Amino acid sequence: MPTEWEKMLAGELYDPYGPELSAARRRARDMVYTFNLTRDADKAERLRILGELLGTAGDGIWIEPPFHCDYGSHIHLGEKVFFNFGCVLLDCAEIRIGPRTLLAPNVQIYTATHPLDPVVRASGLESAKPITIGADVWIGGGAILLPGVTVGDRAVIGAGAVVTKNVPDDMIVAGNPARIIGDTRTSSQKTG
């Protein structure tokens, strides 16, 4: 019989209030609380905490406090990934972020989802779908990525966008729901 943790990572319905998952969330919240209290001068302490919290932390990563996540252990960051202030990652499934990807303030990445059937939803069960973000991606302030999406390499997500579908390599998307508005290879705007 699979554990609730195994069901969660497999994308099946699971009980998030089981003892194993509850303890893992408490551990992450304690670490995040400590991380969010660190000062800029405590760079070594911030990196130590992130090294213990995250599943993978590439060289040169930087996360500005405050930062919030569910478990931490399902977050995998490539080298030189940068999160600005206020990012929230609900990592009930894996979140993989490629090297040199930039997250502006208040970006939200949600792997957690709930059943559409109200009776099942009322039972308290939930599920999760992984999110993958490629290399050299720029995600604008306040953007939201929903469960199960993949963002291709070198893509740009506009500020405030709600990403409900996969984004191909090199595409610029914006809006709610996000839609393609350009191509990074042909855009006349080289900075933003």
Structure notes:
By secondary structure, the chain is α/β, with parallel strands linked by helices. The chain has a single domain (4-183), classed as Hexapeptide repeat proteins (UDP N-Acetylglucosamine Acyltransferase, domain 1), CATH 2.160.10. It has four helices and 19 strands. A hairpin with a 4-residue loop joins strand 18 and strand 19. Helix 2 (19-37) packs antiparallel against helix 3.
Give the rounded overall mean pLDDT: 96
- Span between N and C termini? 51 Å
> Per CATH, which architecture?
3 Solenoid
How large is the count of helical segments? 4
Question: Helix/strand-derived class?
Answer: alpha/beta
- What percent of the residues sit in helical stretches (DSSP H or I)? 10-25%
Nearest-angstrom radius of gyration? 17 Å
Strand order in space, largest sheet: 2-5-8-13-16-18-19
Largest sheet: 7 strands, mixed
Number of domains: 1
Poorly predicted runs of 5 or more residues: none
Total number of β-strand segments?
19
* CATH C-level name: Mainly Beta
List keywords for this structure.
single chain, 192 residues, alpha/beta, UDP N-Acetylglucosamine Acyltransferase, domain 1, globular
Summarize the structure.
21% of the residues lie in helices and 26% in strands. It has helices at residues 4-9, 19-37, 43-53, 118-122; strands at 56-57, 62-63, 67-69, 75-77, 82-83, 87-90, 95-97, 102-103, 108-110, 112-113, 127-128, 131-133, 138-139, 144-145, 150-151, 156-157, 162-163, 171-174, 179-183. The strands form 4 sheets. Strands 2-5-8-13-16-18-19 form a 7-stranded mixed sheet, with no helix packed on it. A 5-stranded parallel sheet has the order 1-4-7-12-15, with no helix packed on it.
